[in-house]
């Protein structure tokens, strides 16, 4: 009669090891997906910049310097086309209407451990309301 070792501990430790490895694979996969999307966002923004001839002077720094992002206000036809191009190509956060008669795109990022988080916000033009009252 041969003695067979119980399978319980091997199965238990195998499940634990598989769960841990699966978790790390999921975390790495999620980080790679985020990095791909950030790269995709920057690529789409750069394509819109080159299509409509956006210049560095057209960008207004968000915090007084360009390290944290920039804003483009669509106050000229080519800048307006750039704003619409970014809005159409990316999933942007639509913010409440600005107090400007022109729509704007804001690109902001924060760098945490050399991994930038990109935020693209769209500000629609404020609707011009007429002061005509019908009495």
Characterization of the model:
By secondary structure, this protein is α+β, with helices and mostly antiparallel strands. It has one domain (12-123). Helices cover 42% and strands 20% of the residues. A five-stranded mixed beta sheet has the order 1-2-4-5-3, covered by helices on one side. Helix 1 (8-51) runs antiparallel to helix 2 (77-89). The chain is rod-shaped.
Please provide a brief summary of the model.
The chain has 135 residues and is α+β, with helices and mostly antiparallel strands. The protein contains two helices and five strands. The chain has one domain (12-123).
Features:
single chain, 135 residues, alpha+beta, five-stranded mixed beta sheet, 2 helices, 5 strands, rod-shaped, disordered C terminus
Biggest sheet: strand arrangement: 1-2-4-5-3
The average pLDDT is 81
State the secondary-structure class: alpha+beta
Number of domains: 1
Contiguous helical run count: 2
Give, in order, the helices and strands: HEEHEEE
Poorly predicted sequence stretches spanning 5 or more consecutive residues: 129-135
Q: Can you count the beta strands?
A: 5
Estimate the global geometry from the Cα principal axes. Answer: rod-shaped
Report how far apart the termini are. 105 Å
Approximate strand percentage: 15-25%
Radius of gyration: 25 Å
